[in-house]
Amino acid sequence: MRVSRADLSKKPADVAAMFDAVSTRYDRTNAVLSVGNDALWRAATTRAVSPRIGEHILDLAAGTGTSSESLARSGAHVTAADFSQGMLEVGRRRHIDNPRIRFVFADAMALPFPDASFDAVTISFGLRNVEDPKTALAELFRVTRPGGRIVICEFSTPPVPLIKLGYRIYLETVLPLVSKFTSSNAPAYDYLNESIQGWPDQATLSSWLRDAGFAQVAHRNLTFGTVALHRGVRPLDSLPGGAASTGSGA
């Protein structure tokens, strides 16, 4: 049997196949590996998005829809988008009775949505898996309405050296051991370790958000900086691609 895992080239087909292979036990494995912190991170992300009744929200890399369910409790309409068909199938079965969540196959680098489609966009632990994260951020900017908001929850770099060292030891020793007993595809979690350690720090991701065109960019650390919550707003006078509107001059 072929073991399905991606590498740091992040070829879309490999990443999608890897997530297909872990879809059935994905949420359980995440809860164990994060020592329950995944629920706290999800709650913090939902608060940062601040979903409101009737809003349209894009939950990119939604996986099985656990984060989408949290967002939809407010009465918002959530588009749960992912490029793993396995994840989407699990999500559709789990949330079949929730009319406020729709599951859509989507490539983060070429989103199948019109410009300015969403009041808010969010992606949790998914931007790191995109082949070209800057292209994905440009796409997220494009589909966010002017005045709309973005929230990104992603693994990051602990600012305290001792915690950073302990986190690296956990990723390289504890994570592979635990994943053998909890995941349906343990080698995929070797990629998790590699992708986290190869991911840029908080300041770099913030600069990428600004380059994409978002304003009011800020972040706060969660769980000692092992995870960071990034936020931004699409300016009211912005155009797709991060350009500002200059008006007609009339």
Automatic annotation (TrEMBL):
SUPFAM superfamilies listed in its UniProt record: S-adenosyl-L-methionine-dependent methyltransferases
Entry keyword set: Menaquinone biosynthesis, Methyltransferase, S-adenosyl-L-methionine, Transferase
Keyword Zinc listed: no
EC identifiers of the protein: 2.1.1.163
Pathway: Quinol/quinone metabolism; menaquinone biosynthesis; menaquinol from 1,4-dihydroxy-2-naphthoate: step 2/2
GO molecular function per UniProt: demethylmenaquinone methyltransferase activity
NCBIfam families reported in the protein's UniProt record: MenG_MenH_UbiE, PRK00216.1-5
Name of this protein: Demethylmenaquinone methyltransferase
